[in-house]
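Running log. JK asked me to keep both predictions on one page so they can be read side by side. First protein, sequence followed by its tokens:
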Amino acid sequence: MQTKKLTFSALLVAIGAMAGNIIYIPVGAAKCFPVQHTINVISGVVLGPWYAAANAFLISLLRNMLGTGSPLAFPGSMIGAFLAGILYLKFGKKSFAVLGEIFGTGILGGLLAFPIAKFMLGKDVAAFYFIIPFLISTIGGSILGYSILKVMEKSNVLKKFDA
């Protein structure tokens, strides 16, 4: 079982890092990556909160190393992924994973991006500047993640991770 989780995790990290080169929405000082949010929801449900947070960290790290991301990727993606996993564990519903991702990334991550932008990147932005673009990105990506999970459920792929 551990090998399946590690393999699936590695696959999601690779997809997330590579998709950052292709699919993103520039919004001011931030780049919004809806694929990241899709992966966060899938990771949170299939792998759990710790794997989800680790996947988000690794994707953010790789994107930064490859020059396709920014330090703003870390707070939102990691908090959203972790909350997606926690809320799914607590309530057992994929919709709660979506809500965890949206709140964690859109609200909490948006707020935490402010000090990073101001002090690390030297961007003069308002405290709530990132909330709207992060919400736009995470809502779209989370809905896509939910849809993919439904397809995985119907094709019995999710059952392969139970055990």
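And the second, directly underneath as requested:
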Amino acid sequence: MKICIVCTRFNLKRLGGVERVILNLSKKIISKGHDVTIICKQEWDECLYEKHAGIKIKRVKCVKSPGLKTLTAFFSLRKSILEEKADIYNPHDWSSGFLFLFGKISRLKYLLTSHGFLADYENPPFLAKIVEKFVFSKTKAEIVCVQKFSKNTSYLDDYNMEYIPNGVHTDLFSIDKSGQDGEYVLSVASIDERKNIARVCKAFSENGLPIKIAGDGPLKKKLAQKYKKHKNIKFLGRREGLSLIKLFQKCKFFVLPSTAEGFGLVWIEAQSCGKPIIASNVGVGPELILDKDFGRLINDTSSQSDISRNIISLNEQIDRYGTESEKIRKNIINGYSWDSISDKYLNKFEVLLNK
């Protein structure tokens, strides 16, 4: 089967959450004997064509101005999609789905994957919200959604979306063989308002527990300066690959009380390493806290006291009773391994191909 995945961007040196999902899904699909091409915009200085891990990556030129990227690439992307002549197309998110709404391209066999809803975010662009709803209402394709829960929308019911979660490489994100609980707490995120890192830092400045924060973003410099005298708070910068996996494996527990998430990939990466998490009641968060051994769920992400209290609570539990690492990891293996997730996509593609 020849599959074409369409996304906004795909820079192998700057992979965000959606791009990591697409990369891992593509690798797994290729390992099962299929062909995968990714089509996207050239947003930085990437090659227009390259091949990585068997995946063909094709990019089209666009004006680099934030407001003009999509507009100037629109027709080039549509042309590239039509020229690909794939069996099945899989646009990721509403912005890529918009490309498939009109003309000859709308008759292609495609499955639209949604990675979250703008209405769940604080102050989303008004026009983007309108276009997002327009895409979901007008698309002729079946829509797959990576989340079961949405704070502020009824999209899941209104557009009859089917749930297929994102996955994790459970063979890579695994339990540390030493079996010891780590000495530090970990957070991995883009350091911005949505990830709630400012409240995380405040909590640890008060409780004195050691925390390592991996990631970069607009608030990093400000927060690093504010908490530079707190030796227990360490900003590591962006981490990837084995370096990132080691951080998960060696930590005591993981904390990320985001105000909004489409899914929350780092939560399942932490739990795949057998670590309890502090998550928020968004994205996949409610599915992962099955009981207190799995961590804590923050219902009010604007509440500093709620975040601080749950950090202390989980830390005291681990100190007293230890960590149920195998129990935590088993839930991830059963529900979120890329092997099972890729099979669900391939089953969808086969049904669509035979229609």
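Observation for JK regarding the second prediction: The radius of gyration is 21 Å.
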